[in-house]
Every structure is written in structure tokens, then in C-alpha cells.
Amino acid sequence: MNELILDIDDLSVIYKTDLETVKAVNGINLKIGKGKTLGLVGETGAGKTTTALSILKLLPENTGKVTSGNVKFEGTNLLEMNEHEIREIRGGQIAMVFQDPMTSLNPVMTVGDQIAEAIIMHNEGLSKGEIEKRIDEKLTMVGILPSRKTEYPHQFSGGMKQRVVIAMALACEPKLLIADEPTTALDVTIQAQVLMMIKELRNRLGTSMLMITHDLGVVAKICDDVAVMYAGEIVEAGTVHDIFLGEDHHPYTEGLFGSIPNLSSRTKRLNSIPGLMPDPTNLPEGCIFAPRCKYCMDICIRVHPNTVFDETHSLKCHLFDGKLRRDKQEGKSEKQ
Fold this sequence. Notes:
Elements (H helix, E strand, L loop, with lengths): L3 E13 L4 E13 L3 E5 L6 H8 L8 E10 L2 E2 L5 H7 L4 E4 L3 H4 L6 H12 L5 H14 L16 H12 L6 E5 L7 H18 L2 E6 L2 H7 L2 E6 L2 E7 H6 L5 H8 L39 H5 L4 E4 L2 E4 L11 H8 L1
Parallel strand pairs: 3-8, 3-9, 6-7, 7-8
Antiparallel strand pairs: 1-2, 1-4, 4-5, 9-10, 10-12, 11-12
């Protein structure tokens, strides 16, 4: 891989209350090369947003806790930084586009003032005229007329609010952009526009990106590499080619692809993965996907699988113990 901008090693995160301990992220490894985009895919509750919040040390103060691991940004461990040091990184070198633009914007501040906040915090020497010029540039970059900078969030549509949020995130031209399902609340047409805009801005600014999504179509359009997350673990990772065109896949990844509607065939029902994700307060002893897996063997229930590597591709599944391209029917017959 190219020189790394972000290297997450053995990261584990819990949410602890008086009643229970939620194991949200369990020993994950992620790497993002400079100028590259990594797609983090998985269903709701898999731990994607918790991973993103951990990078910027934005976990809930009283309940969220990193129990192990390192998060290195350009070689520096972010988890060892104090609050003052991490504030210099947030917004300046690493920016985040949050999931819901409706709640990400302050309703009593103009959009121009909200973009200005980020610029002023990380560029103290700028004059008022220079700040206004930067605001105009960023709004133009995301396709909003600069004259609208004096308006308030309620005067913008959902898609326009998301553009404002992206303009805020890009205000200081960060080295790494974390986009947490940036198109979830938008209709399909606006989704396509926002994705194309993100892709163009990434190419123009040379920004690396972590794209968190549950939409494999978004991954195919935007990403260079993919990591599939399930119940707090990375069960499969590789290049876009590995995931979309490779022969071997984790049964969960197979299930995700199988859930996508096929436009060339008629069917009464959409396919789905049977069952539900395990309770994060009481994870299975063996493979976390075993209760839902059609290839489940005895070893899957008893033993947690190791990760198998093949150049750029990795899988965490007993079907591939020792090597990839193993016949999955072998597992099916053993179960029978």
C-alpha cells in the first residue's frame, strides 16, 4: 500500500454503564493510504460510527472507553494526545461529516458563521476579508451561491444542508475526511449529486477519506479499498476489486451482495440474511456470524476464527483456514 495516513491497530471500544458493558468494537485493524478512500461497510449497529468517533476521541465521556489499540495519524498516536492537542487535529487535519445534517448545524447561526468558526479556529492570523473569501470559496466548491452565507439552516433543503456540512468539513482542507453515511437522509437524485461532489473534491484536494456506509453501490463508486464490519469485527477487507470481483468472500459479505435487488430477474421477495446480529453485551464464544451462517461447522461455534491473508485480501472465517479459494461445500457437508 502507499504511505499510510491512518493506521488503526487492534482497536477495541466498550460502552460501560452500571447495568451492562457493550463490546462495540473488538480488535479491528484498518489502514488508509495517502490520497486513498477506504469504505467501511456493515449493517446498523456493527460499530462503524464508534470507530470513527474513536479516531477523533469523540466517544461519550462517561460511558465510551478505548480498552486497547492504537490510532496512528501520520505516525502519531491520536489516543495518547490530550484534549488541547486533539483539538488542533480535529477540523484542521482530520474533519468529519456526520450522519444527519439536520442535527449537525446550529439553527441560530448563519451557515457562513458556522463555516467561519472552523476557519478561525485553525487559522488565527487571517483578516476578516480573507475569512469571508474562504467562506465564499468553500460554498462555491460545494455548489452553493456565496450570497446565501447569511441564511440560516432552516432556509436550506436537506441536500443543501449536507453540502453546507461538507463545506464546513473542507474549510481547512483536511488531510483526512471521515464521512459517516453522508447520503443517508437524502433522496436518490441528491445522493448521486453529493457523492459525485465528494469524489470531485477528494480528487481536487488530494484528501484521503474514510467512507462509512451500508450501501455497496456507494463503495463501488467512491472507494479504493473496502472493509466489511460485523458485530464490532472486520470480517473481510481488501481492494474494491477483491471484494466485488474476487472469488472468495466471507459468508456475511455473500449475504450483503445477495440482499441487493437484481434488476434483471423477477421475484416476489427480496433476499435477506436470516437472524439478527448478536447481542454486543453477550457475544458468541466462537465465530460472531456462526448463528446466521449457512456454512456453519462445529468449530465455528467453539473457536474464534483467525484472519487469513492473501496479499491485499483478508478474511476472518474457518472456511478459509490455511488458504483461500477453499470449496465452501466442504463446510456444508461437514455440517450435515
